[in-house]
Amino acid sequence: MEASLYIHIPFCAGACDYCDFYSTAPRGRRRDRLTGAFIEALLLDAEKTLARFARAGNGPDRQGRRFPEGPVSRTGLFLRVPTLYIGGGTPSLLGAAGMTRLLGGLMPMLPPLREFTVEANPESLDEAFLRTCRDFGVTRISLGVQTFHEPSRRSVHRVGDGSLLPEKLALTAEYYGGSFSADLITGLPCQTEALVLEDIERLLAFNPGHVSLYALTVEEGTPLSLPPLRRGKSSVPFLPDGETADRLWLAGRDALEQAGYDQYEVSNFSLPGKQSVHNIRYWRMKNWLGLGPAASGTIIDDASGTGRRYTAAADVDAYIAAAKTGSPAGSGLTEELDSATLIKESFLMGFRCIEGPDRDLFRRRFSRDVEELIPITLEAWRRRGLAAAEKTALTREGLLWLDPFLLDAFKEAESQLK
Ligand code: SF4
Known about the structure:
The structure is a single chain. By secondary structure, the protein is an alpha/beta fold. The protein folds into two domains: about 5-280, pyruvate-formate lyase- activating enzyme (Alpha-Beta Horseshoe), CATH 3.80.30; about 340-418, no CATH class. Helix content is about 40%, strand content about 15%. The protein is built from 14 helices and twelve strands. The protein has helices spanning about 30-55, 95-105, 125-135, 150-155, 165-175, 195-205, 240-260, 275-285, 315-325, 340-350, 360-365, 370-375, 375-385, 400-415, and strands at about 5-10, 85-90, 115-120, 140-145, 180-185, 210-215, 260-265, 270, 290, 295-300, 305-310, 330-335. It has a nine-stranded mixed β-sheet with strand order 7-8-6-5-4-3-2-1-9, sandwiched between helices. A three-stranded antiparallel β-sheet has the order 10-11-12. α2 runs parallel beside α3 (about 125-135). The chain starts with a strand and ends with a helix. The structure holds iron/sulfur cluster. Iron/sulfur cluster binds near residues 90 and 144.
């Protein structure tokens, strides 16, 4: 079996107002204790999970335990892991010592990787951390920049000090010249088009191979979704209106493209050959395993077009306790995915990409073509110039209308699948 691996590090220095990823911000000695216990739990979980999937279908293990039957168990004897992504949270908060323990335990369990990414935040990134990453074979660093503009950072309580960014970017470029990625956000309070362009110019001076340009979204349950007076922290309460926010993102997109960064997904741009292989595998609905609290994994059986998804509970203490008692630390929620669900997910993920869904894989799994399921939608969107004529994908302008396209596609596919 082949599956990418995602590891969720659930620690941050604080909580940014817009973030809905699971993380916790322990302080002082509790932080050291919790981090150490988490790494040990993660290694136990990795050993069990990797062995379970590698051995799936081979009957009982040495202790006589049987592994769950299902799509996984029919697919193979060995586990290939093309890509590894350590995200969070803030992996760089583990520091060089924490990373040495984590990767020292983990890497011997894994086959050779094609791509290995680690996320880092400038405030906790130092030379020892980068050197450790390089020594253990990390091929990409993904750095959370967001914006250089201090009032915008403060207005959403972005963790870290923006004045450190140039120094930390220079350090990252020294170790990962051309092979690092940086995240930027548009649509922040106090942001103007000139400031977005300035962010891009300052970032590109360090020659990242890849840039993610996210339009700020207000996720349910985050502090930013609360009315200003209920946010509990002093902040600049006003977000730009929708039209202004769109203009800011488009200005950023155009500046990146003019600088030679090709858009290959809704929010992702890269220089030639510097796309994120790991993320492309998600968007193409290839298998992945997840480790750590709140991480999920999805395994799809190509023969039946059905799959299984598990999502670990978003609770680091529960995760550590489960690993210690030997119960599967990855447990939380398991869902069976039928073909109709997976077809919709393949659209949802695949049409985010400038190349569209993986048509060969789609045909192999569902015994029909994407075009066969949504011919009317594709034809209508092609007539408007928003879907590509020569491939099954949206155009660059069509990507701006992804949501209405998906509504049309789902409606048509559902009528075909009845
Ligand atoms: S540092 Fe990143 S993961 Fe942590 S709260 Fe902020 S946005 Fe979320």
